[in-house]
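User: What would this chain look like folded?
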Amino acid sequence: MSNRSTIISNLAEVFGSFGRVVDGLGPEQWSVQSLCPAWTVQGVVVHVTTIEEALVGWRPGGEHPFAAMGSIAAELASLSPEQLVARYHAAVTARLAELDTITEAEFDAPSVTPVGNATYARFMAIRVFDTWVHERDISVPLGIELHHGGSAAEMSLDEVEGSIGYIVGKKIGLTEGKSIAFDITGATPRRLMVKVDGRATRVSELADPTVTVSADTLTFMQLACGRIDPEQAIGAGRITWTGDAEWGGRAARNLAFTM
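Assistant: Here's the prediction, encoded as structure tokens.
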């Protein structure tokens, strides 16, 4: 089952937190480059608002909700910051009201999602992840301090954990018989372990990993999402490793699985 209440609560958390960041932006901050190469801070806010506006009125099983995204984004991009902030708040308020009417059965129903066919619950968990990451895309370059823990952060990290076998096997390229542990520290601590036995597979126990890679929550998530230069993170000591030095360096430099 989907744990509908947790997903809705996490969406409310990230919508509220993102909203508080954009509410506090000064005129000069909207044009600052975000951590997404194609977007300024304003571009990120347009993107997040566009998706939520596209989802207003859409129910699980309906036609693909993103058909109107191009026209919505163009309209939002033409607005003043004040108008854009108002549209953001109106969109997420409408979305949360609608989510309250969607049943547990609908949450578990098959649905299109940004990663293919899954369930509506999966789609909404991705919305938590996407909003959480985009909030940091604008807060980090602006020097706005955020807390990186809590239920929404845990759900966001779940998205990376769900792809950790792919990251290790395809992006890092760890070879047969070797293993790796990721020690995530800070606000959302977690230990992720993968062993290559025919294929790279997440495991619950790993007695003697080939390499152990350590990073704080924000650094790990930013590297996995391709948001920061691995060399800068390595140079600053934000990601380190013990054990096999070659595989540690490869892992630190090849965590990105999405952008």
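The beta strands are 110-113, 116-119, 179-185, 190-196, 200-203, 211-216, 239-243. If you want, I can go into more detail on any region.
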